[in-house]
Amino acid sequence: MNLFAASLDRLARLGRFLWSAWAGLAGLALIGALWQAGHEAYGDFILTAPLDTLAAAARLLHEGRAQDLLALTTARALAGFGLCALIGTAAGVAAGYSPATLRLSRPVLTLLLGVPPIAWIVLAMIWFGPSDMTVAVTILISATPLVFVGAVEGVVTRDRGLDDMAQVFGAGPVRRFLFVSARQISAQLFPALILALGSAFKVAIMAELLANAGGVGGALERARAMLDIAEALAWVSLAVAALIAVEYMLIRPVRAELERWREAAAPWGVKR
Amino acid sequence: MNLLELNRIGHAFFGRTVLQGISLGVARQEIVALIGPSGSGKSTLAHIAAGLVDPREGRIIRRYLRHAMVFQDPRLMPWATAADNIGFPLRLARVPRGMRRRLVADAALRAGLLPEDLGKYPSELSGGMRQRAAIARALATDPDFIYFDEPFTALDVALKRRMQDLVIEAAASARFAALFITHDLLEAIRISHRILVLDAGGRGIAGERLIPGNPGSRDDQAVFALRQDYLAADPLFAHIHDIDERLRP
Ligand SMILES: Nc1ncnc2c1ncn2[C@@H]1O[C@H](COP(=O)(O)OP(=O)(O)O)[C@@H](O)[C@H]1O
Ligand SMILES: [Mg+2]
């Protein structure tokens, strides 16, 4: 009975999610229309028609090579993202609980955020050559501060009253963190993680292109050299599709599961 | 033998003395009301007694087995349903899931929550329902001592009365002792066996009054008359309403 209600609830949420996909599709259609208009104004050589681009992307996928390149880039981006999520969360939580560490880390953060990612790519290329390491390190350095700030915000803005409550009922520091603080931190952390994931893909492709490390970045570089605008746009579309797929398969479901109460808190009619 | 004893407790925040030389005791199954104007250090004292704050000086002896606390704000976890909030202390006490569900339902019933409210999130409950959930959470582990820190201040008069009756009934049936902090003299008279008045500057307990009869068996007329009496003629209560905490050093 209880299980039935729970699965029904889950089904309803899935339905709402699919329904919201229509809104996303409408947005995509709008972009497609603008793209088509640009194509008609400037011609094939500047902006390939959206359908032709899709055809090119389908061809790339069909030929088989694209899967490998996409998988390579995605793996690199995910590896960098995983590392930065781990390190950023751990460091951010630690700093959030220790005001002295936080004060020390602020200038470091400003410095890290001030250096353009391109500079890190150049440095990483010199240190590691055209390898996975270059890509991973660049992602790590450019995306970790985001995650760090999210985790710190989560710790600092948590409701300390709940900590007291848990302590009164006998929770030690560890269980206070696991049962009470972690949930509040995750609410701040998830938006930062989504941003970091997007940034990981972008930086991965940029690093691949500049470091000549293959993957989607390498393919883009070849398309540029051959002035093949259709193929370049096709690669961009494929990379974006990969990012969206990862985000909706990896992060959104976890977040939706953790944030069910927010949906309950939304007044009727605001539920999307 | 007192369940809770505070001996010459003193505390300061950032060098500013808030409490000084506070001694009090609460006996088994006794409800002691602690009243004092806002800012006199009542919450600080409750937090010290419950072990949330380490006092700068003094000694605390706790002879009870298990305590609970009802705060001024409900302090429910917004991401958990009412049932999960009420069951939180049981989860911390590692009570098995099946037994937990039974105890939660029982505590909710005693706090006047309806079974259909148990699946709701705090944001879906009214203010009174949230405070009921907080009371149910305090009752869930069947504690022998409960701290109440002005739990009903935010509620309207009618609701406040119902909640007070609920605490009186629960105390009579579950037989817990309590330190009930309030700045409402009427509430203190209705609920407690004994009233302690905290010095307005937190320098000791200014005095105490035993309330005749048992909570729950006093009729409204007597309660109102006693309150009038205290406010008009008893010097101990002369200043409990007219202190402005902004004037404190
Ligand atoms: N965490 C804190 N840090 C600094 N000052 C505090 C803190 N908590 C309470 N105080 C101060 O201690 C005094 C007593 O506060 P409190 O115990 O909350 O009083 P009450 O509960 O009687 O209203 C107030 O002047 C308040 O400003
Ligand atoms: Mg208070």
Automatic annotation (TrEMBL), chain A:
- What Pfam families does the entry give? BPD_transp_1
Topology in the membrane? Multi-pass membrane protein
Q: Which PROSITE patterns match?
A: ABC_TM1
Keywords annotated in UniProt? Cell membrane, Membrane, Transmembrane, Transmembrane helix, Transport
Q: Can you name this protein?
A: NitT/TauT family transport system permease protein
ABC transmembrane type-1 domain: from which residue to which, for each copy? 70-255
Which InterPro entries does the protein's record reference? MetI-like, MetI-like_sf
Domain of life according to the entry: Bacteria
The subcellular localization recorded is:
Cell membrane
Query: Species name for this entry?
Result: Paracoccus thiocyanatus
> For this UniProt entry, which segments traverse the membrane?
17-37, 77-97, 109-129, 135-156, 189-212, 232-251
Coarsely, its chief localization is membrane
Q: Name the Gene Ontology biological process terms.
A: transmembrane transport
Q: Which family does it belong to?
A: Belongs to the binding-protein-dependent transport system permease family.
**What Gene Ontology cellular-component terms does the record carry?**
plasma membrane
TrEMBL record, chain B:
Q: Which InterPro entries match?
A: AAA+_ATPase (IPR003593), ABC_transporter-like_ATP-bd (IPR003439), ABC_transporter-like_CS (IPR017871), ABC_transporter_ATP-bind (IPR050166), P-loop_NTPase (IPR027417)
A molecular function annotated in GO for this UniProt entry is: ATP hydrolysis activity
What positions does the domain ABC transporter occupy? Answer: 4-225
List keywords of the entry alphabetically: ATP-binding, Nucleotide-binding, Transport
Transport as a keyword?
yes
Q: Which SMART domains match?
A: AAA (SM00382)
Keyword Zinc tagged: no
* Stored Pfam families: ABC_tran (PF00005)
Task: Identify its protein family.
Answer: Belongs to the ABC transporter superfamily.
Full protein name: NitT/TauT family transport system ATP-binding protein
Species this chain originates from: Paracoccus thiocyanatus
